Amino acid sequence: MHTPRSAVCFFLLLALSVAVVAAQAQRDPALTEVWDPVPPKVDPGDASRAPSDAIVLFDGTDLSAWSGRDGAAEWKVEDGAFTIVPGAGGLATRTAFGDVQLHLEWRSPTVLTGEGQDRGNSGVFFMSLYEVQVLDSYGQEPALNGCGAVYSIAMPSENASLPPGQWQTYDIVFRAPRFDQAGAVVELPRVTVVHNGTLIHDDRELPGTTAGGLDREMRAAGPILLQFHGDPVRYRNIRVRSLDS
Ligand code: MG
Fold first, then answer.
1. 151 C-alpha to center of ligand 1: Å?
2. CB proximity list for 180: less than 8 A, separation 6 or greater
3. Total domain count, the chain
4. Average of pLDDT values for 35-39?
5. Whole-number Å distance between alpha carbons of 82 and 63
6. What is the mean pLDDT of residues 217-242?
7. Which end of the chain is more exposed for a tag (fewer CB within 10 A), N or C?
8. H-helix or E-strand spanning residue 135
9. The domain that contains 162 carries what CATH number?
């Protein structure tokens, strides 16, 4: 029996419509909506305002969250920032941290006369053991002891440095080592570093503590330390979110 062409087209269109409806049913967005667990709400803040769940380590006015070599933090607070004072030693947070997300801004002196490690040297030590280097490395090749390096362990993948005298940002996620019941390290610490918005270490594993750390032994938590290296480096807007569960 000969089937009219119009009838063939009708059935083809009908079959196609059924297939489309079935596909849409399979892609129903409601099927992918999972509501549990409910993530906590966080006001992320902005350049001048810390996230709502952050611990503010320096808000521009005082160093009460920090201690110095002899107790009090004696770096100079001025114009919403603080500056390393010659002979004052480093500063450590009064709180010990494990897993953290840190935001910090720093500025090397505008005029630098030294070379190499004498160009605005300081550093951010997690647990007082692992240093992310602070240094003027503008226009230089990345180095194991240059700006953004995990000192003596890993050089940054890019040199994102700004010229001396300009404020620079570090956004760093540090994951503490994990230990077994006997105290042996079963997972090494890891660090991710964003320098001035550029990723320079991506979940980097740290096989040991860095030269200049206060100890060689790994630990579960410890203070964040700002290094005194003799140069008047400035810091401001320091905030940390604890990532410990
Ligand atoms: Mg240093």
1. 8
2. 186
3. 1
4. 89
5. 8
6. 95
7. N
8. none
9. 2.60.120.560
What separation in Å is there between the alpha carbon of 60 and the centre of ligand 1?
23
Instruction: Give distance in angstroms: CA of 120 to centre of ligand 1.
Output: 9
**Cα 44 to ligand 1 centre (Å):** 30
Helices (H), the chain: 5-26
Cα 213 to averaged position of ligand 1 atoms, centre (Å): 10
Domain span at residue 152? Answer: 55-242
Model-wide pTM > 0.90: no
Instruction: Tell me, yes or no, whether 193 lies in a domain.
Output: yes
- Measure 21 CA to ligand 1 centroid, in angstroms: 63
- Read off the pLDDT of residues 159-204 as tens digits, 9 standing for 90 and up: 999 999 999 999 999 999 999 999 999 999 999 999 999 999 999 9
CA of 194 to the centre of ligand 1 (A): 17
